[in-house]
């Protein structure tokens, strides 16, 4: 009996031998592909399958111009690896981006909405490219295998399963399952930050923008539900730590330039902004959190009336909840929007419809008429008229 | 012999259990049809009706759910959502979209859109072209639907919705843009325009 027990222990011990032993994993070279018999080729194959599905998936934002813009940022950061990395945008309103070992980079629309300028976006793209170049997915895989620790493998599964997918309006969990290899160690994250920052500085972007995106995320977390980490943070180090690292690393550079390219980013996301904001509001996060996201989105924007209008939308959609009357707040914001710009039709429509709900019928009619006048024969005119009669 | 007898008895009970199901498939014949004593409609063709006790809707299809369907929802009351069934644990989630009988016509469209996104059936879902529409005697709205599933299959359809006695009545038709939308659109329109609330 003892012999059998000993055999089991030895057998289990043998499983803990790292695959590939202590062999150092070198950086991937430009245009390199793994040899067919390697573990890495297996990882690539899995990710190639995922990528094929992603290409036609309904969740992919099919905006070639935007994807090209992101790819161009990548190529500005690293011309060497430009051919090796494909960038896709997924229409998911959480702050997230991930890099697969085969060169598939995925950026979620929630990140694009939150990046205030191209420099901040380039920080994330450069960081993800760093994961690819340093082969972090392979390292994470070998590390988990080397420990043959069932708990470690399980924890990868749980980290994915635990990300706010179940019970959320957008199907995050399922989308992340194929991307589980995007979970990296702190050392790997730090290394990817360093690679990304080197790229950022070489490309002439302002490195002071790098920590700012994380500072905003911290603020957003504070305003939201603390028990509910944002998706990106569920598999990455705490943002406080990352900010410290980035600030520390930035001090070592000379000849820093300060390219931010705010306008360029805003122009590219403009066609999608309305839909992304709608999705952000749909998440039903704490209103203060959503307000903060919108304030950052419109910070460098002259369109203050839109900020006020969307803030009004947040509170209209919450409606009357327990003892809070959010309709009054919504009306205040709509009025502020009108004060900032008095010929934006949508605000009159929403204000008028809300006033009908709270039985301020005379004011409501005035505003709905104003909407019809400004919108000039809108498609929904007949519905509006049904409220006027 | 005793063992064979036992196996026979156990098999018999297993067959009985397998026969007991929450799912019901019914062949709908052309003519006037009553749906759960909620709606009455007229159809010119045969449909397969599927209903599961847990769901608050039933659907009609000819070639299969993923190819084309007309979904009839049971009336919703304040605080309920279109897909309030336990399998998705949505009932317990406070963030799910919920119906409010004070919703205006545009908010009905918004609510419907949010519920479909919540159901995760489509990864892309958009509504457009909202119009006044009468469901039976209810003053409601109709609007068009464009959707895409995770595999990238495109869908088109339309929905109607309206409030009566503080309850939301809604029906929608959706089919794959390729092949089935055009084939069944007119029939779906006829069926939905014949709806009477019972």
Helix/strand-derived class of chain B? alpha+beta
State the end-to-end distance of chain B.
58 Å
| Span of the ends, CA to CA of chain A | 90 Å
- The geometry of chain A reads as elongated
Number of strand elements of chain A: 5
Domain count of chain B, please report it.
1
Number of continuous helical runs of chain B: 3
Whole-number tally of structural domains of chain A? 2
- Low confidence ranges of chain A: 1-22, 149-169, 171-181
The CATH H-level homologous superfamily of chain B? Mog1/PsbP, alpha/beta/alpha sandwich
CATH architecture of chain B: 3-Layer(aba) Sandwich
How much helix is in the residues of chain B?
10-25%
The global form of chain B is globular
Q: Output the radius of gyration of chain A.
A: 25 Å
Number of helices of chain A: 20
Tell me, what is the CATH class of chain B?
Alpha Beta
The residue-averaged pLDDT of chain B reads: 88
Major sheet attributes of chain B: 8 strands, antiparallel
Your description of this structure?
The complex is a heterodimer of chains A (389) and B (198). Chain A is mainly alpha-helical and 389 residues long. Chain A contains 20 helices and five strands. Chain A folds into two domains: 38-250, no CATH class; 302-388, Serine Threonine Protein Phosphatase 5, Tetratricopeptide repeat, CATH 1.25.40.10. In chain A, helix 10 runs antiparallel to helix 12 (239-250). The model of chain B has no long low-confidence stretch (mean pLDDT 88). Chain B has a single domain, classed as Protein Transport Mog1p, Chain A (3-Layer(aba) Sandwich). Chain B has 198 residues and is of the alpha+beta class.
């Amino acid at each position: 009996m003892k012999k059998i027990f000993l055999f089991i222990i030895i057998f289990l011990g043998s499983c803990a031998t790292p695959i590939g032993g202590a062999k150092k994993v070198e950086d991937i070279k430009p245009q390199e592909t793994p040899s067919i018999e390697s573990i890495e080729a297996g990882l690539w194959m899995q990710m190639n399958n995922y990528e094929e599905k992603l290409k036609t998936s309904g969740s992919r934002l099919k905006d070639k111009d935007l994807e090209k813009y992101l790819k161009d940022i990548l190529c500005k950061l690293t011309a060497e690896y430009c051919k090796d990395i494909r960038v896709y945008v997924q229409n998911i309103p959480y702050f997230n981006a991930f890099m697969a070992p085969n060169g598939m980079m995925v950026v979620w629309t929630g990140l694009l909405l939150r990046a205030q300028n191209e420099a901040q976006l380039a920080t994330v793209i450069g960081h993800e490219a760093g994961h690819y170049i340093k082969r972090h997915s392979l390292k994470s895989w070998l590390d988990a295998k080397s420990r043959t620790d069932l708990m470690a493998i399980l924890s990868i599964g749980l980290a994915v399963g635990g990300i706010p997918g179940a019970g959320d309006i957008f199907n995050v969990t399922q989308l992340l399952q194929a991307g589980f290899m995007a979970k990296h160690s702190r050392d790997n994250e730090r290394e990817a930050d360093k690679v990304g920052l080197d790229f950022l500085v070489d490309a002439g972007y302002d490195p002071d923008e790098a920590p700012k995106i994380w500072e905003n995320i911290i603020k957003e977390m504070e305003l939201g539900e603390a028990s509910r980490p944002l998706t990106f943070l569920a598999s990455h180090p705490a943002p406080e730590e990352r900010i410290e690292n980035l600030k520390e690393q930035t001090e070592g550079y000379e000849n820093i330039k300060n390219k931010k390219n705010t306008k360029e980013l805003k122009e590219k996301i403009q066609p999608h902004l309305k839909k992304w904001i709608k999705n952000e509001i749909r998440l039903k996060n704490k209103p203060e959190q959503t307000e903060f996201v919108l304030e950052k989105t419109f910070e460098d924007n002259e369109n203050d009336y839109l900020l006020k209008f969307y803030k009004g939308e947040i509170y209209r959609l919450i409606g009357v909840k327990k003892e809070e009357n959010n309709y009054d707040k919504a009306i205040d914001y709509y009025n502020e929007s009108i004060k900032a710009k008095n010929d934006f039709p949508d605000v009159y429509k929403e204000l008028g419809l809300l006033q009908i709900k709270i039985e301020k019928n005379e004011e409501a009619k005035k505003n709905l008429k104003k909407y019809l006048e400004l919108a000039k024969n809108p498609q929904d005119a007949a519905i509006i008229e049904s409220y006027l009669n | 012999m005793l063992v064979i007898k036992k196996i026979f008895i156990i098999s018999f009970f297993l067959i009985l259990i397998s026969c007991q199901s929450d799912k019901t498939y019914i062949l709908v014949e052309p003519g006037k049809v009553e749906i759960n004593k909620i709606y009455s409609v007229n159809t010119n063709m045969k449909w397969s009706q599927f209903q599961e006790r847990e769901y608050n809707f039933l659907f009609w299809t000819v070639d299969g759910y993923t190819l084309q369907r007309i979904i009839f929802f049971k009336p919703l009351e304040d605080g309920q959502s279109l897909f309030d069934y336990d399998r998705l644990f949505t009932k317990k989630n406070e963030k799910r979209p919920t119906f409010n009988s004070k919703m205006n016509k545009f908010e009905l469209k918004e609510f419907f859109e949010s519920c479909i996104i919540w159901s995760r059936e489509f990864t892309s879902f958009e509504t457009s072209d909202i119009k006044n529409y009468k469901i039976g005697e209810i003053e409601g709205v109709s609007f068009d639907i464009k959707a895409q599933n995770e595999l990238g299959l495109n869908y088109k359809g339309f929905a109607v919705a309206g409030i009566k006695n503080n309850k939301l009545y809604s029906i929608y038709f959706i089919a794959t843009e390729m092949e089935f939308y055009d084939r069944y659109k007119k029939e779906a329109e006829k069926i939905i325009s014949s709806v009477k609330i019972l």
